[in-house]
């Protein structure tokens, strides 16, 4: 995991945030749970942007030096809860950095991260509506990493994304359409049958419903998303399409005819 490049601290000095962790900070000392707890306590009560970035360095340093996440479940849950809080920061730079960190964790310690999906999914869905493309991309990367975790059903992630389609914000609905296909395409499935079931019973029906969305932005994204599905699994998509009501088939044909369908590549 890469941290930010820092200039050397003066002798006897150091990062103000890290100095406050257990009196001496994480820099230069062995990783201990008490130091991590102190860092999390400061993060939980600190709203300063710079402190949240410094706090990220403290937490990341603990994970690196410990070669993993805390073994104590209570402390691990607290770490994820505070990470989700910081990833929801209104400052897009802070939110982006913390989402990147969560993505790193999900890529290396996926089983631990998916256990906190109840807190994580709402954060990612909300981030889909960010005005920052970096935040939106990082959010989808987190979702993709979670959907790749071995022995975890990606349907949980996809259903979580589908909640974004009920948002009052058209940007969230639009991004959720695109994210649904991106995550579906990058997910790890038990077998081909399991993937086909998810496509037929979840992904396509949910996106098809958005073809009647009052927002032209959402309708256009839904048409592109369905086009991407068709490119990925043309035979399966055609079978699903033929099972839809005739009016829905005609609606898809009319909308997709006016909308390009570039492939949605996993980030």
Keywords:
mainly alpha, disordered C terminus, 267 residues
In short:
This protein has 267 residues and is an all-alpha fold. Helix content is 67%, strand content 0%.
For the termini, the CA-CA separation is: 18 Å
Rg over CA atoms, rounded to whole Å, is 21 Å
Mean pLDDT: 82
Biggest beta sheet summary: none
Strand percentage lies at under 5%
Count up the helices: 14
Amount of helix: 55-70%
Chain oligomer state: single chain
Note the overall shape. elongated
User: How many strands in all?
Assistant: 0
Structure class: mainly alpha
Low-confidence stretches: 1-28, 258-266
| Secondary-structure element order, N to C | HHHHHHHHHHHHHH
What does it look like?
- By secondary structure, the protein is an all-alpha fold.
- 67% of the residues lie in helices and 0% in strands.
- The chain has 14 helices and no strands.
- The chain has helices spanning 16-19, 33-45, 49-66, 73-87, 92-108, 110-114, 117-127, 133-147, 155-162, 170-186, 192-209, 216-232, 234-242, 246-256.
- α7 packs antiparallel against α8 (133-147) and α9 (155-162) packs antiparallel against α10.
- The longest helix has 18 residues, at 49-66.
- The radius of gyration is 21 Å and the shape is elongated.
